[in-house]
Description:
By secondary structure, the protein is mainly α. It is built from 13 helices and no strands. The protein is globular, with a radius of gyration of 24 Å. It has helices at about 1-15, 15-40, 50-55, 60-90, 95-105, 110-120, 130-135, 150-170, 175-185, 190-220, 220-225, 235-245, 250-285. The two termini are about 45 Å apart. It folds into two domains: about 1-40, no CATH class; about 55-285, MetI-like (MetI-like fold), CATH 1.10.3720. Helix 2 crosses helix 13, helix 3 crosses helix 13 and helix 4 packs across helix 10. The model has no long low-confidence stretch (mean pLDDT about 85). It is a multi-pass membrane protein. This is ABC transporter permease. InterPro entries: MetI-like, MetI-like_sf. It is found in: Cell membrane.
Amino acid sequence: xxxxxxxxxxxxxxxxxxxxxxxxxxxxxxxxxxxxxxxxxxxxxxxxxxxxxxxxxxxxxxxxxxxxxxxxxxxxxxxxxxxxxxxxxxxxxxxxxxxxxxxxxxxxxxxxxxxxxxxxxxxxxxxxxxxxxxxxxxxxxxxxxxxxxxxxxxxxxxxxxxxxxxxxxxxxxxxxxxxxxxxxxxxxxxxxxxxxxxxxxxxxxxxxxxxxxxxxxxxxxxxxxxxxxxxxxxxxxxxxxxxxxxxxxxxxxxxxxxxxxxxxxxxxxxxxxxxxxxxxxxxxxxxx
Length: 288
C-alpha cells in the first residue's frame, strides 16, 4: 500500500509530459536557437559584435526609448479607462453585465490587421473622428492623427483594452461591497475608501492587467506598421527590417533577444509584485 501511495503522485506527474514536451519543442528550442543566432556571426564564429553594435548605436537607443514610451503610454491609458469600466461591469446587474462582457469580448474576434486598417480610415484628415470634432466645434481644423504617436496610441489602446479590463474585473467582482460600507460607517470619505480599501484589494488585477498590456504593447508590430509606417520606428519594426530587408540574422536575433528580455522582465516584475501584494494582504488578514 505504501509503495502504491508513493507511485501515485509520480504516475499523475507523467501526464504533464506531453504538454511539457510540446512547450519545449515549440517555445524553448526556438528561443535557444534565437539566442545562438545572436552569438554567432555569418561565418559561424562566436561573436558579441551584434550586442556591441546594438548597444553602441544611439539610433537604437532612441528606438528602444520610443518602444518603451509607447508601451508605457498605452498601459497607463488602458488602466485609466479599464479600471472604472471593470468595476462598472462587476457591479452591474446580470443582464447589463452580460451585454458589457459581450461588447468587450466581441472585438477580440476581429483580427488586429482589420482593426488597424479601420483606424486608418477613422483617423485620417477627412475621417469620421475629425468630422465629429469639427461638427462639435472642438477643433478649427482637422487634427493630424495618422503617422504619429497619437494615432498609434489610440489604435493600440483599442486593441489591448480588453486585456486590462478582464483581470481587474475578475478581482473586482470578488471584493465584498460590505468593506466599503464598513469604511463609510467609520467615517471614511469616498477618496479615503478608494485609497485604503478598493485600490489595495484590486492591486492584483491591476498588476496582471498592466503586465499583459505592456508585454503586448512593447512587442506590437502590425499596429505601428499600418498606423505610422516608417516614420516612427519601434523595436519590433527595426527587428523586422533587419531580418526581411537587411538579411542580417545576427542583428535581428540580437534585437529579438533584447525585446524578449524587456518582456520577460515585466512578467517577472509583475509576478514579484503579485507575491508581495498577496503576502501583505495575508498579513493584514491575520492581524485583523
